[in-house]
Amino acid sequence: MIIVFKPTATEDDIDHLSDRLRELGLKTQISTGEERTIIGVIGDDRILEHQPLSVFPGVESVTSILAPWKLVSREFQQHNTVVQVDDVAIGGKRIAVIAGPCAVEKLEVTVGIAHEVKAAGAMLLRGGAYKPRTSPYSFQGLGREGLDFLAEAKKQTGLPVVSEILDPRDTDMFLEKANIIQIGARNMQNFELLKEVGAYDKPVLLKRGLSATIKEFLLSAEYIISRGNKNVMLCERGIRTFETHYRNTLDLSAIPALKELSHLPVIVDPSHATGKWNLVAPLAKAAIAAGADGLLIEVHSNPECALCDGEESLKPHRFKDLMIELEKIAGAVDREL
Amino acid sequence: MIIVFKPTATEDDIDHLSDRLRELGLKTQISTGEERTIIGVIGDDRILEHQPLSVFPGVESVTSILAPWKLVSREFQQHNTVVQVDDVAIGGKRIAVIAGPCAVEKLEVTVGIAHEVKAAGAMLLRGGAYKPRTSPYSFQGLGREGLDFLAEAKKQTGLPVVSEILDPRDTDMFLEKANIIQIGARNMQNFELLKEVGAYDKPVLLKRGLSATIKEFLLSAEYIISRGNKNVMLCERGIRTFETHYRNTLDLSAIPALKELSHLPVIVDPSHATGKWNLVAPLAKAAIAAGADGLLIEVHSNPECALCDGEESLKPHRFKDLMIELEKIAGAVDREL
Amino acid sequence: MIIVFKPTATEDDIDHLSDRLRELGLKTQISTGEERTIIGVIGDDRILEHQPLSVFPGVESVTSILAPWKLVSREFQQHNTVVQVDDVAIGGKRIAVIAGPCAVEKLEVTVGIAHEVKAAGAMLLRGGAYKPRTSPYSFQGLGREGLDFLAEAKKQTGLPVVSEILDPRDTDMFLEKANIIQIGARNMQNFELLKEVGAYDKPVLLKRGLSATIKEFLLSAEYIISRGNKNVMLCERGIRTFETHYRNTLDLSAIPALKELSHLPVIVDPSHATGKWNLVAPLAKAAIAAGADGLLIEVHSNPECALCDGEESLKPHRFKDLMIELEKIAGAVDREL
Amino acid sequence: MIIVFKPTATEDDIDHLSDRLRELGLKTQISTGEERTIIGVIGDDRILEHQPLSVFPGVESVTSILAPWKLVSREFQQHNTVVQVDDVAIGGKRIAVIAGPCAVEKLEVTVGIAHEVKAAGAMLLRGGAYKPRTSPYSFQGLGREGLDFLAEAKKQTGLPVVSEILDPRDTDMFLEKANIIQIGARNMQNFELLKEVGAYDKPVLLKRGLSATIKEFLLSAEYIISRGNKNVMLCERGIRTFETHYRNTLDLSAIPALKELSHLPVIVDPSHATGKWNLVAPLAKAAIAAGADGLLIEVHSNPECALCDGEESLKPHRFKDLMIELEKIAGAVDREL
Hints:
Four copies of one chain form a homotetramer.
Chain A: E1 2-5, H1 11-23, E2 27-32, E3 37-42, E4 59-63, E5 83-85, E6 88-90, E7 96-100, H2 107-120, E8 124-126, H3 144-157, E9 161-165, H4 171-177, E10 180-183, H5 191-198, E11 204-207, H6 214-226, E12 232-236, H7 254-261, E13 266-268, H8 270-274, H9 277-289, E14 294-298, H10 316-332
Helix pairs in contact in A: 2-3, 2-10, 5-6, 9-10
């Protein structure tokens, strides 16, 4: 922590803050420059992270030096985390493609899509049973029945299932019926939910919030890991910007940035990011080229009648074509599909 | 709903979509222009809000015409909603000032601040018992004990109490101990929590999400009201933008915009928006001048030692001075304090 | 300047950078903490502002301590700058209201509006002769003839004239015909234009760019002042955010922030910020309450037929009503209108 | 154009606007729905683009249907534009890599870098002679001498030269000495400069503004083409968002979006977008995978001493490695390098 004083700060101001820092058990080093006095705090200054040092008299600015997270960091663990879900390893050389409908609708549709995405090479099945919808008048998902349909699809295809939890009271059900629990973008800072899923070792796919910084994203992952659950995957799914031509702005710079700062696998969801099916293929390819460990792609056999996000869903034959193209990109960056 | 076709759309494309609309029970009107064909959907087209019409062949764009909300709208209720909390009316001529510490810490500090803000003219007491913190290592609030301290402060001062709920499993406790339940910015789209507080008639202070549009904000309010709870107040608390000089960018244009679109009271929180105590006073005054119905202001007797957000807290004497200035502004816009 | 090294940095890394700093003539102070080594640069480290220190081996982060501007800062000049334009003083106790049409259209319309805004109490006349339009097919302004119409309006009403320059080749014409030269938001970082207007002492109204930070805004003002022209006024006119309900998001926090950092007058333009005439009055009042030194307001006698931005223009009678309301707010914050 | 009336609109309101539309020579079609009346304007309604229809009494919203641009659109020209610069074709099957230092510094350094990037496979040389710097105290470029150094580098290597123009008064010099004139992000809406370069047939590389939408970007290109210059290339270089971990957020969704809407070549600049050299390679690969026609990459032989943007510059050996990786990606998407 670096504390810079205003040119008008008095010696009393500097002593007053120094005393407080010593009270907190910290060592300090004072530099008196020509224009400003600076205090450097030595040692683990994380306890200062949320101390309101900037309100002390004479203080101009306070700058943190250490990253506020620990367990998610590359410094803490240098090798990549590989999350094992049944016999699928996420975060290794092979890229994990998770595909399926936005929302689970009917049993036969769900099972049908599962068979099709499997045939095309997908390794996991996605599907929403509980849907967080902007409007209370939109389809809210089938709930428990939706999870049952996914479980049935898994039984028939062997594909492990990813589904989104909305309510901490549903944890037991998800532990039983899903293979990966998804925390959606709108709940990235629903800390009670993070604590809840942190209490088990069930794999968690944590989506980045619409306006979450890289730092906040990693701190939300830290919530889960600090409760004991190390099986966390990060998912970039577009951030909110001024641009309205697509639903959100997919931030692919986050891939190398997250891989540098953290050891966790990074998945990319081009479907939700763009909200337009015809942008999914180029961005899926770009994500692999930039180093993503996996993709989350919406596939629907009849997008025109999908109850949720049909605009961004690929038809199965387009998904199949995409998988062929992705394989080439994977090869070009020394990965497998 | 207005559907515009591409110049390359065929008659089949137009018929195919027209058939689908008729299937859904909607009347249509087709305009064939020189460059484009347009279908206008007549009647209540809200059922189309989440139909993926843009994936139909030949469609260029789909534009919604009706606002997607109903119960929160001025069209639905022309007069202002006034939320009654004990003997305090929020949304009427008198401006409601809600003040207190960010987080509840010790009983005597909480009660002390309550007495001071009351003496300065505040009408309600705020205080966080459960704190949504970006880092798992930050102070997470006293929990149930914090609510008890607030209840004690209310007993001694008579000030009704506003506190934030984080977990739907805590509803009973909040119904018993708080007078207004706050839904924080990070939970504005925690729809399970919205549904939960919508099931009672306890007043709810709904904060705008960091990246929530006016439209999404009103739809979250609609979630609560559509479940039966009409006692909803909207709170603008700053949005996330590229500017880093303040924590968030307070969006005061939202005040007249929300008052035009909706009948609900609008409260402004300049403390969280700016994160800097010395910006609170000018923005509090601006909020009243722009038509806000109330203010949420952080006050702490010893900001240097506050466990949360000390940077933005006013000392009691500064809050007292501010109340005197606010009274003048209120008078200038024909309101009372 | 504070340079933080990675935990993996070697002594060689630290020596290598220390040498470079000494080469540049700077004194350094090295702190060796438990997790990180830190170098503090003492003295005027502005010469480091654009040195790529972060590419040196082992460097984790580089943080600037001194503000990068000098002449615009409160530190440099503690008293408020008051810009004198004929007999109007901008930046003093009296609030300067600048009103008029977005674009100059016809002579009689321009002169008519000038008379009306003067009657309502405006102190200066605004009007665009050269219009920066997003589309090449939109009305681009009358050009030189527009400046002549404004000059005629000044002759008849005595109101000094504000008009926007787009091209450095037009400087002479603006020096002759305008009383304040406006640099528009899109040209805030057109540095050649800033240098050009910096070479004279003609007052300049510098608008904040759509995505300009407070820091960049002040540095653009510094461009002008560093060339010799001290008569600079800052104008907040809304920034670009994700919100689409209004054209831009008016950032009123910028008023107290700019007044704290700088001695220059701060003007607010609620018309361009919102793009909606019915939001202009509440935000104009809010701006005064927050401490603005002036307002820029669009007024048009027939908004329905305005060639530019009719949506946001007030009719003269509404402007007159607004002036009465503004006077009350001004009084409440101890200013005059 | 679709005009929607409020439920409270009167017949007079509807007649009044209809009359205005007829005055402007437009045909209208009126739909009277259950909740709203709608007017559809038939024919080329671009003349309405900047008519303030929303201020007419009773109007709720106005929605444009036609894209506001013409000459840049795929509708206008279905085949891809290929810009020819000497013997380099940009926009065809071969991907154009433009590399070089941010700013031109010394002759021998410039020529040296030119030789190195050529040896690695770059097809064009970039280098700034006039630098738009945020601070007036930063290195502003060598000016005319810098252009001479670039010309010399071209003479020695044969690489055509891209350099940025800042001032319309420098056009003649750029026509003579540069092979592609770059319009930088800060000048994307410097319309006088756009008009100026539109008057010749010299190729123009137009960078997207920091907060420019896809729509505004294309309209700026339309400015140039509508003046007669068809040799325009679009360059995505990152937009400004809330994320501060990188300098800007590279918007790779813009690649397929621009290619769909327009026939112009799309270049990507990962160096300026991220501001960090170690993010350049993954994002360069992603850009090619997403369909970019070219890349703009900063290369400097001694980034530690670069006078501008050393943080984001690749050393020549890293650039060479990147070219080898890019070739694989190009092959995977059926392109050549």
